[in-house]
Amino acid sequence: MKLRNVQINALLIFLILCCTSGILGLLSHLFDFQLLRLWKEVYIALLLIMTLALQIHRQDNNLKSLLTMRMLIGVTIFFCFEIIYSMYLSLPIKVIIYQLKIDFFVIVFAIICWDIMIQNSKVGIINLFKKNVYILLTLGFINALAIAFERFFPHTFTNLIGLTWGNWGSNTGVKVIVSGGHIRSIGLLSTFVASGTFMLICLILLVETRKIFQMNYYFHLLLMTLFSVSIIMTTYKTAIIGLVFYSLVKVIPSISKKYRAKIISISAVATFAVFLISTHFYGINNLVSKINEKMAYNSIFLRIEFHREIINQLHSVPEVLFGLGMGKNGVFGLDKSVYHIKSLPTDSTYIYLVSNYGYIGAALVILIIALVTIYLFKNEIYDIVGARYILIYTMCIEFFYNNFFADFPTNIIVILLAVLSTVSSIKNINYNTVGH
């Protein structure tokens, strides 16, 4: 039990570190400490060791423990196959390992969260829920203030982190980009994409948990306004679209409760279809370019071009099914040019999965997210954090315009909330008395 408590507390500390990851990135640069850049992988590895130790220590070998071990074994077998397949395609082992550290630890973290919560008592999960919400909303509030500070005092901010105006990049541990003469605010995180998504998650969490915590109306309104404005200040268009989408699926179904499920389902499928079409054909790009040519070029046209180039690399049936190998494409992190690999950007979950794991991998991820989302909508009374809406956003909007696997730390937060809601439903946990 002591080790389990240590593991739970370690998970909460990890969440705090995730929500301030930009600071850790900056520190790794200031102190020139390369190992600090691997802190999240090391931390998840430690959580995994604790999980395995608890599995060994647990003597009853119940079905929950067996399921955890089977999932870990299944994931290990899958990645062993992918490593062998990638080596068969003559990809350098260093490129494969670099890719492995991104995907393996994300999936393992989901299994760790599952084990922590499924083995916990109802009271323990309720306490974990409260602590998670307090951490996310508190750090979300601070992050929103940081976004505003960066927006209104850009020169002070860039001087603070050691950048000169116009010297954008990730060489200082964070990535700052300017658009239209304004900084795309990163808050406490390392990119504007992560910060914008984090603010959207906080907004959904705030709205969904208000009744449970009986939050003061005016304070709730203040936070909701702050989170909404901060999303816009990051200028992350996908998160802004997510804000509009969430508002619509909350307001429209309330007008017609009889057709609520159908409205949400049709909206989700239609949104998925529009974003799929927008990244494969030029029609939507041509339409948007008439309104804002630069935005259409950067956000839509380039994605279509990169998607097509990567798809054109799939020359054989195995490549279509299983991909081009781990790390063949993707321009973040490791410099692959030293290995004579000409990589293309994989800045969407869709093309990232197709390139690394083929259409089987992409279909499997969509299927898992869809099944969990449907399950949570059918048991929405237990989804008190709004994970079902966050998953719709991840699957229907971000899937074609952002890379979930590389978007740390929001991928960690989404996984944590999705597992929390799923386990709450399985255990039939009543959260109605949480705020009392």
UniProtKB/TrEMBL annotation:
<feature type="transmembrane region" description="Helical">
    <location>
        <begin position="12"/>
        <end position="31"/>
    </location>
</feature>
<keyword id="KW-0812">Transmembrane</keyword>
<feature type="transmembrane region" description="Helical">
    <location>
        <begin position="95"/>
        <end position="114"/>
    </location>
</feature>
<feature type="transmembrane region" description="Helical">
    <location>
        <begin position="357"/>
        <end position="377"/>
    </location>
</feature>
<feature type="transmembrane region" description="Helical">
    <location>
        <begin position="68"/>
        <end position="89"/>
    </location>
</feature>
<feature type="transmembrane region" description="Helical">
    <location>
        <begin position="263"/>
        <end position="284"/>
    </location>
</feature>
<feature type="transmembrane region" description="Helical">
    <location>
        <begin position="37"/>
        <end position="56"/>
    </location>
</feature>
<keyword id="KW-1133">Transmembrane helix</keyword>
<feature type="transmembrane region" description="Helical">
    <location>
        <begin position="389"/>
        <end position="406"/>
    </location>
</feature>
<keyword id="KW-0472">Membrane</keyword>
<feature type="transmembrane region" description="Helical">
    <location>
        <begin position="134"/>
        <end position="153"/>
    </location>
</feature>
<feature type="transmembrane region" description="Helical">
    <location>
        <begin position="186"/>
        <end position="205"/>
    </location>
</feature>
<protein>
    <submittedName>
        <fullName>Uncharacterized protein</fullName>
    </submittedName>
</protein>
<feature type="transmembrane region" description="Helical">
    <location>
        <begin position="412"/>
        <end position="430"/>
    </location>
</feature>
